[in-house]
Amino acid sequence: MSPDKLKQYLKRLIEKDLKISAMIWGAPGIGKSSVVQQVATETDSEFIDLRLSQLAPTDLRGLPVPKSEMSTWLPPEFLPRSGKGILFLDEINMAPPVMQGVAQQLILDRKVGSYTLPEDWHIWAAGNRKEDRASVYDMPAPLSNRFIHLEVEISLPAFKQYAYHAKINEQIIGFISFKQNLLHKMDKNSSAWPSPRSWEMSSHLLAAKLDISPAIGEAAALEFNAYVEIAEQLPDIQKIIEGKEHPPFPPEPSLRYAIVTSVVTHCKSPDEGLNGFKWLIDVADAEWVQLFVTDLFSVFSQNGQLQPLQKKMISDNKCQPFLSDYMRLLH
Question: In angstroms, rounded to a whole number, what is the distance separating the alpha carbons of residues 82 and 300?
Answer without folding.
Answer: 37
